[in-house]
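All the exercises in this workshop are built on plain-text protein records. Instead of coordinates, the fold is spelled out as a row of discrete tokens. Once this layout is familiar, the rest of the handout is easier to follow. The record below serves as our worked example for the rest of this section.
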Amino acid sequence: MARVYSEPMSEVPHRTTGDEVELGALLVLLHGADDPFRTIQATYRTWRHDERSREAFLADAEEHKQRGASISSARFVRSGDPEPPEAEETVRIWRDGQRFREERHGGRRDGYYGVADGRLWWFWDEHRGAMSNQDDPSMGSGVGQELQIMLNPTPLLSSLRFRVAGNSRVAGRVTVTAHATPRPQDPRQGAFLRELHELGAGADYYQLEVDQERGVLLAVTSIRDGQPFFKITTLALGFDEPIPAETFQFAPPQGEEIHSPASRAHSLQHITLTEAQQRAPFTVLMPDRVPTGWQVHCMFIEASQRPPYPAHVSLSYCSDDGHQSISISQLAAASHPYGHLIDDENWQEVAHDGTAVRVRAPGWPQAQAHLERDGTFVFLVSDNLTGDQLATIAARLRPAPSTGSI
């Protein structure tokens, strides 16, 4: 039997739980959590167990696939060295009306900070540098949205079923402890529920600590198969306290120039396969044949230093009826960033036409395959073809022509 996880908390006097009155009080708290407050300052600690999070995400993707929805598992592609099995970071948030500031300390985005003032936003991180929409306020971003589900959990009322489990205390504040399980989803409504993904997709249930005064979330533990895989814990929280105006001023590190997202749009270009072969610093490969009526879109992405990424080509093939499709990404084998993805144990090697191709193991929620040929690393993905079909296509790839017009 799976072990039931319970986060230790400092105890407060227990009160009757589980009846309709207690549940009703909890729902009223959650429903009113979006009541206006003048300012807020919050500090959170997040913890993630990478492998358990990955397994929960993939299990969730498979469940959605069985219900007729589609969700890509390629979100786990990461560059660089393998990640540690567990990661912690601290997130700090300041909010005053329509002005926001958020910072991350520790973890994968250590040093990130962003500022928003109404529709305008600025951010900096080591990976992408300094960016802003100050030249085009119509361009949105996620700045100002860090952990917003903690401050406004009202959307969870339609996503979860709740059961009151007791009381506790977090960050010096009294809480109502709740056990929450995901509601069955209608596949016609789509696979993505932002609020649950913020808390950890694929949980069997969530253990919530709801602030008894404000209704905001003070702690969340996401649990699958009796094991926690993601936690958010409030370390400090203050409402309606003055915040210095300079908190919401953005200043990038010395020597950093602020870029607009539009200034980097030129790096992504729709071109022909022939043009891609002429421009790419590696051999561009294409299927040896394409069924009649299928459409192809070729995209060339120039090399970038911010964020650091090598030049690559993306091919998208789709049948006219939309029932079948395949995406083929490729770049120089010596510079590909897929190491963390392709080095795990969920691959098996198959041979097609004398060529070794690695495909995802049976039961994987999305068909994936990869190989190296002529100095090019190729990664194939499809939501509606099989792994064997991808392997056949991969084994028969050939260089695209460098002349003509394909």
Q: What stands out?
A: The chain has two domains: 20-239, 266-399.
